[in-house]
Amino acid sequence: MGNETVRWTGNVRPVSTAKEKKVLQVWQRMEQLTPRQAAVMRIISRHSHGCSPSLRVIGGRLGISRQAVHHIVDALVAKGVLSREPRKQGTLVPTVKVP
């Protein structure tokens, strides 16, 4: 972890604060997403109705089954880029801004 750097408008400097290290780790995880995982993250982050879209809605937009979406969401939660409250619907929240 000692060799990490942050790039800000062309300047490169070592990561110094704990917050910067956490942001860097999350962005490194975002870079490791599969194209389908990234698509699910975009759909969830762009949903504007106050809660996250249902798995059925996400699956319908991507042309995949609800169960496939469930597996993708589980993988995103395991990677730490998505969080949810247990036993509550509509609580999928990205932990990082999605470009």
Account of the protein in words:
This protein has 99 residues and is α+β, with helices and mostly antiparallel strands. The protein has 4 helices and 4 strands; from the N terminus they run ββααααββ. The chain folds into 2 domains: 1-32, no CATH class; 34-94, Arc Repressor Mutant, subunit A (Orthogonal Bundle). The strands form 2 sheets. A two-stranded antiparallel sheet has the order 1-2.
Summarize the structure in short:
With 99 residues, this protein is an alpha+beta fold. It has helices at 18-31, 35-46, 55-62, 66-79; strands at 5-8, 11-14, 82-83, 93-94.
The ordered string of helix (H) and strand (E) elements is EEHHHHEE
Q: For the terminal residues, how far apart are their CA atoms?
A: 25 Å
Please count the helical segments: 4
Query: Which structural class is indicated by helix and strand composition?
Result: alpha+beta
β-strand number: 4
- Write down the CATH topology of the largest domain: Arc Repressor Mutant, subunit A
Q: What is the CATH C level class of the largest domain, in words?
A: Mainly Alpha
Helix content: 40-55%
What CATH architecture of the largest domain would you give? Orthogonal Bundle
Shape: globular
Low-confidence stretches: none
